[in-house]
Amino acid sequence: MSTYKVLIVEDSPTMRQLIVFALKRIRGLEIVEANDGVDGLKKLSAEKFDLIFTDINMPIMDGLKLVSLVRNDPGYKEVPIVIITTEGASEDRDRALALGANDYITKPIQTTKILDAAKRLLNLGA
Amino acid sequence: MSEEDKGSVKKAEEFLQVFKKGAEFTQELLKENERLRYQILQLEKNERPEDDGDASSETLRLRQRVEELEQQKDEILTRIRQVEEENHDFANRYVEVESENNMLANLYIASYQLHSTLDFREVLQIITEIVINLIGAEEFGILLLDEKTNKLLGVVGEGMEVTDLPQVNIGDGIIGQMAKTGENYFIDDMEDYEFDPLHPIVCIPLKIKEHVIGVIVIYKLLEQKARFADVDYELFTLLAGHAATAIFSSKLYSESERKLSTIQGFIDLLTK
């Protein structure tokens, strides 16, 4: 079974753990955690990832900036990005999608939504 | 009689003889014809009932077969319906188990986080994150009991200022009542709700056994969270229990740390 690397960029340890816990249900995933956008970029430059989950509201560097930088990096142009946002509707989500994010998950976090997004974007089937 | 006459007579006799034979042959043919016709009739008569019998027995056999097949079809259809119902039940059960599983996973993470620190402010921050991320609240506050004044005072406000949170005497209004009884409060009609600090949509007492140390009051849910799911009610109660012990132990720890540093200061003063 091939291994996929997933990066989770989230400042809240609780949220990070929730996402990690959900993703651990998928076999063959290697999960790496980052505390904020800057930490995320460092980890992205150190190794190759197949999927990125990122929060929007973070200190130091927010998720929108991260999405923008990742999409401008030729090495990460095609890597799927899922954004996590508190606002169910409109603005942040639309901005992130316009910047190149592939999907979004709204809080409160639901395990099934995380799993569905990961499976779909990694083409893992049901 | 002349020779010529004799010849004619002989011919006549021969002709009669031939005619007679012809007549006999014809008679025999007619008899044979009659006999054959009789035989045909007999055969037809004999054969007809046998055909009818075969046909009717075949029809009977086929009818029985059709009935058997109809019965089998009914049994199969009944079984399919039963299997479909079982399948439906299993699917519903799977969804329930999955939902419970998710809730337990969330609860595990929440309680793990709550008890991962003894820093009072950090505990409050974790409770705030949990209420946002797991419950889906947008405007809420945490009120803790001040044992000197026996009042509930705001310590955290999310989506609102702490100063906007009410100060409530135990037993007063919905918040005070819930703090007194230790019961959870959920508003009946969430759609027509208008903000009132003393009347939240949810009030969850933070209690250790029967001792209430504070409450979580929610005034607004996130836009995408129209209403509470069934699991939320259980999650609230379980989380409130963990939050209460985390707050209580972190407060105790902070106080003991403070006392320890005071005592250490005294000791340092005396020994120097």
Describe the protein:
The complex is a heterodimer of chains A (126) and B (272). Chain A is built from 5 helices and 5 strands; from the N terminus they run E-H-E-H-E-H-E-H-E-H. By secondary structure, chain A is an alpha/beta fold. Chain A has a single domain, classed as Rossmann fold. In chain A, strands 2-1-3-4-5 form a 5-stranded parallel beta sheet, with helices on both faces. Chain A is globular and about 30 Å long. The relative contact order of chain A is 0.18. With 272 residues, chain B is α+β, with helices and mostly antiparallel strands. Chain B is built from 4 helices and 6 strands; from the N terminus they run H-H-E-E-E-H-E-E-E-H. A 6-stranded antiparallel beta sheet of chain B has the order 3-2-1-6-5-4, sandwiched between helices. In chain B, strand 5 and strand 6 form a beta hairpin. The model of chain B has no long low-confidence stretch (mean pLDDT 88). The interface between A and B is medium-sized, with 19 and 23 residues.
Largest sheet of chain B: 6 strands, antiparallel
If helices are DSSP runs of H or I spanning 4 or more residues, what is the number of helices of chain B? 4
- CATH domain class of the largest domain in chain B: Alpha Beta
- Average residue pLDDT of chain B: 88
Query: Fraction of residues of chain A in helices?
Result: 40-55%
- Low-confidence spans of chain A: pLDDT under 50, at least 5 residues? none
Report the sheet with the most strands of chain A, covering strand number, pairing sense and barrel closure. 5 strands, parallel
Secondary-structure-based class of chain B equals alpha+beta
Strand content of chain A: 15-25%
Summed over residues and divided by their number, the pLDDT of chain A gives a mean of 87
CATH class of chain A: Alpha Beta
CATH topology of chain A: Rossmann fold
Spatial strand order of the main sheet of chain A = 2-1-3-4-5
